[in-house]
Design a protein that fits this description.
It is a single chain. The protein has 155 residues and is an alpha+beta fold. It has one domain: Nuclear Transport Factor 2, Chain: A (Roll), CATH 3.10.450. It contains four helices and seven strands. 27% of the residues are buried.
Length: 155
């Protein structure tokens, strides 16, 4: 696990511009949170809806404030992921671990088909319970200014 975290930090240093604040500051402290976040980020980048669903507790919840939009339960989230998977319409993502209020979180950078760069699209904050994701709260890029993340990444 430690080597995976070291590789992730090395990747972040390579992808983020020099002088940018360390996006992993305040990252999760427990091994189970780190493990769940890593699997979540890998599955999101690969567009693996089945793996994302497997990570969820049966009573998981996904909210997307400020939109009055939430999904209760693994089955509802699985339906959402089946209808709109991460790679829907040729989208690609790069994920970067961040911390949000001492919870594991991932900054999502989106590249649409035909674009050259990945643009910050939001942050997924996870609540992990017993190694499974109990809750995902997704904030749009407009709500993430306090993280001081770079607006774009190159491949």
């Amino acid at each position: 696990m430690t080597s995976a975290l070291q590789r992730a930090r090395s990747t972040l240093r390579a992808r983020f511009p020099a002088g940018a604040p360390d996006p992993s500051a305040g990252a999760p402290v427990t091994g189970r949170e780190r493990a769940a976040l890593k699997v979540f980020m890998d599955a999101w980048e690969q567009g693996d809806a089945a793996e994302l669903t497997r990570l969820l507790r049966e009573d998981a919840r996904w909210a997307m404030p400020p939109a009055p939009l939430w999904f209760d339960g693994r089955a509802a989230i699985a339906t959402l992921l089946a209808l709109f998977p991460p790679r829907w319409q040729g989208r690609e993502f790069r994920m970067a671990p961040v911390g949000a209020n001492r919870q594991p979180a991932a900054a999502a950078y989106l590249r649409r088909r035909g674009e050259a760069v990945f643009r910050l699209s939001g942050i997924h904050v996870l609540r992990v319970s017993d190694g499974q994701i109990a809750e995902i709260t997704t904030f749009s890029a407009e709500l993430c200014a306090g993280f001081r993340l770079p607006p774009t990444l190159t491949d």
